Amino acid sequence: MAGLPLRHAGRVIVLDPADRVLLLRYDDDPPAGRHWATPGGGLNPGESYAAAASRELAEETGWDDIALLGEIHRHMRMIVREGRAFRQHERLFLARTDQVCRDLGDVAAMHASDGIAAWRWWTLAELDSTAEVIWPRRLAALIRGTLSGR
Questions:
Q1: What is the maximum alpha-carbon separation in the chain?
Q2: How high is the mean pLDDT of the chain?
Q3: What pLDDT sits at residue 150?
Q4: Which of 49, 67, 78, 140 is geometrically suited to a Cys-Cys bond with 10, CB 3.0 to 4.6 A?
């Protein structure tokens, strides 16, 4: 992975009042394959991680009223975009909605263009027991650790 180009991304762990987390499903070709991930994406030139995370959250959900509550995690992972592999440095931010299992806005066209196949709210117990691939790995533990520290 060390020789791959570097990409920077901001992502958002959005929790509802019952601490369910919103995840988006991608059905990518290998090596990524089918996986679920938090909303987010790459930084535009001159954009901060937080600004990119907020922008991507609004684009992918249709919500423009969610404030980031702070950065809670950083990691590096390999991604493939348009047939090219990258090392992606991600910063994850926490956010909350006050609506239980909030519906997404009118984002179907955006999801189609970005390869988002589905979305759903997950409980932490569901994350613990699923056979689905979840990014970042150990997301439920990360959320529990964050919530216990607040």
A1: 43
A2: 94
A3: 64
A4: 49
